[in-house]
Amino acid sequence: MFTVTYAQLNLWLTAFLWPFTRILALVAVAPVLGHRSVPTRVKIGIAAFITLIVAPTLDPMPQVTAFSAEGVWILVNQFLIGAALGFTMQIVFAVVTAAGDMMGLGMGLGFASFFDPQANTSTPALSSWLNMMAMLAFLVFDGHLQMIAALVETFHSVPVSANVLSGNGYRLIAGWGATVFSGGLLLSLPVVVAVLITNISLGILNRAAPQIGIFQIGFALTMLVGLLLIQMMMPNLIPYFARLFDSGIDQMGRVAAGLRPGP
């Protein structure tokens, strides 16, 4: 007769539950996989499938009862680690959104907006388009697989334990947030500069020949210049996205190392 002791049941439960929590937290927060259009059941199924593959390869779990106070604390730790890593990758897509906001504002497309279900608010049309391009590039470059591989690697760099996580990882995330402004400005700089030069030229022309009616052609001209610059940027846009994704994956490793509990 097949019998299972409480110790064996607890061992099997913890071997699956704690890795599943870390993986599910990343899937729920990470870009593409955590999008609101992806059903919750699909997210749970993806996390469970990855856990079934990864769990047998991990080091032995702490000898702690799953639903004890220490076991719940370990559960919270795993959730915080997964959410921190997923948020790190979300910052990469925030760079693209910020660039779209800057370009759209200069081109006069700031008023053209769509409802973004991910942010649960209206976002400029240009930002939505760039974000969609970044998501497609992310899938083409297997960014989702690289992200999952980086997460699995964190189980070796930050083993499952009840130790208090270090705050260095959160400081790294805060510093990484500056990329939203620097990377977004770098991506939007050609369009912003071109539109600025166009507006300065229109201002000089308006002073020289007021009868032309600059206000009637200015909006269309700045939009045309911005769209032409975006078209010229397209060959270099995808390689720039690839560098952003690589930086995000590397930053995930640094954040995980920063979260490692001290001795």
TrEMBL record:
Listed GO biological process terms? bacterial-type flagellum assembly; protein targeting
Q: Where in the cell is it found?
A: Cell membrane; Bacterial flagellum basal body
- TM ranges are 12-33, 40-58, 64-85, 132-152, 173-197, 209-230
Q: Does the keyword Isomerase apply?
A: no
User: What does UniProt give as GO cellular component?
Assistant: bacterial-type flagellum basal body; plasma membrane
Keywords, ordered alphabetically: Bacterial flagellum, Cell membrane, Cell projection, Cilium, Flagellum, Membrane, Transmembrane, Transmembrane helix
> Which Pfam families does this one have?
Bac_export_1
Q: Which InterPro entries match?
A: FliR (IPR006303), T3SS_IM_R (IPR002010)
Keyword Electron transport in annotation: no
Which family does the UniProt entry place this protein in? Belongs to the FliR/MopE/SpaR family.
Which protein are we looking at? Flagellar biosynthetic protein FliR
